[in-house]
Write a structure and sequence with these properties.
This protein is α/β, with parallel strands linked by helices. It has helices at residues 16-29, 37-50, 61-71, 87-94, 113-116, 139-149, 200-209, 231-241, 244-262, 290-293, 297-306, 337-343, 357-369, and strands spanning 6-7, 54-58, 77-80, 98-101, 124-128, 152-156, 164-165, 168-169, 176-180, 193-197, 214-216, 219-220, 268-270, 277-278, 284-288, 309-310, 332-333, 346-349. The mean pLDDT is 97. The modification N6-(pyridoxal phosphate)lysine is found at residue 185.
């Protein structure tokens, strides 16, 4: 008998009965992409759900990041974090900008504001922080630095769908915020992404940039790409939107089980919920102290896999540790000792809405039995 696999994530899937009417209507309309009915409807519904003024849908989050920097017409250096998925820094380099990597906070794993200002030069044009695992960055400190030096702020909010700080969406921070709707995220459109902006003028500019720069059928006014979300993705997103609150509630219950069970385990540190924050529980990272726990992070990772628990080492290696980035003269790399320590000791335990109590207890028992 095959042992059940417990994965770190599973996509939020609407039932076929819920999805079928959308698909039938798309077939009847014969409009599959290019700002169709469901694309427009999903933008409206997401604005209402997320509490934002304007949202521009994309075929994926990476193209959203690339287009956001293009829209702000940046030139020079962008200060960002080495502790993220490579889409963050790749998007900088794809715009012929220079990523400047600085260290992170040990408690939140987010970009440390105290390191930002020291990295600013006369070439700095923007700050690109990441809400790591959906935990909000220190927005006030980052914005104060940006205002002082006249810099743009673009938030990589790939993990931060629905996250609020003091009852306000974190997506309203900065000049632009970017979401990912990849299937591994809490909310998905299979593939997909979005840019949140504050003005209709910027929304219209983004709409042009993601559609080759077309102003009208016979006029192109800027250099754009093809980054449009199609109607199937939009319909999937609409069908999933009604499920997301229940999914987040279930994730919260899983997080509570992990925290309570692992609280007294020596050498295991869980990230705490931040005060005043409505979390979406996208991930459940823990830090392993091998001296206290008696086993390294990598050894625990392998033991979990032997038991069909497919945990992940997000984010390992650091962006700056990848061969492409090592000694890359098109980047600037400041000391990242904190980020490196986190990267080498973090493991994300399974966290999704389909985990049963038995699944969670299995993971917990493996971790405890290895002490």
């Amino acid at each position: 008998m095959k042992m059940k696999q417990i994965t770190v994530t599973t996509p939020l899937l609407p039932s076929l009965d819920v999805l079928k009417p959308y698909l039938e209507d798309i077939w009847q309309r014969k409009w599959l992409t290019n700002n169709g009915h469901y694309h427009q409807l999903l933008e409206k519904e997401l604005c209402d759900y997320l509490g934002v003024k304007h949202i521009c849908l994309f075929s994926n989050g990476t193209l959203a990041l690339v287009t956001a920097m293009q829209a702000l017409e940046l030139k020079g250096e962008v200060i960002t974090t080495p502790y993220s998925f490579v889409a963050t820094s790749h998007s900088v380099m794809l715009n012929n900008l220079t990523p400047v990597f600085v260290d992170v906070e040990p408690e939140t794993f987010n970009l440390d504001p105290t390191n930002i200002e020291a990295a600013i030069t006369d070439k700095t044009c923007a700050i690109l922080p990441v809400h790591v695992y959906g935990n909000p960055c220190d927005h006030q400190a980052i914005q104060a630095i940006a205002d002082k030096h006249d810099l743009k702020v673009i938030y990589d909010a790939a993990h931060a769908f629905g996250v609020k700080k003091d009852d306000c969406s974190v997506l309203n921070w900065g000049d632009l915020s970017i979401l990912s709707f990849h299937a591994t995220k809490a909310y998905s459109t299979i593939e997909g992404g979005a840019i949140i902006c504050h003005t209709l003028e910027m929304k219209q500019k983004l709409d042009k940039l993601k559609s080759f720069g077309y102003e009208s059928e016979t006029q192109i006014t800027m250099l754009g790409s093809n980054a449009k979300m199609n109607e199937i993705q939009a319909a999937f997103g609409l069908a999933s939107l009604g499920l997301i609150d229940d999914a987040i509630e279930k994730r919260q219950q899983v997080a509570k089980m992990y925290r309570e069970a692992l609280a007294d385990v020596r050498g295991i540190r869980c990230l705490n919920d931040l005060d005043g924050v409505h979390h979406n529980y996208s991930y459940f990272p823990v830090i392993i102290d091998d001296q206290e726990y008696g086993l390294s992070r990598d050894a625990l990772y392998e033991k979990l896999r032997e038991n069909n628990v497919l945990a992940r080492r997000y984010f390992y290696p650091l962006i700056t540790e990848f061969e492409f980035y090592k000694n890359n003269n098109k980047t600037v790399q400041h000391s990242s000792d904190v980020a490196k320590g986190i990267s080498e000791n973090v493991i994300c335990l399974p966290m999704h809405h389909e985990l049963s109590n038995d699944d969670v207890n299995k993971v917990i028992n493996i971790i405890k039995d290895l002490i």
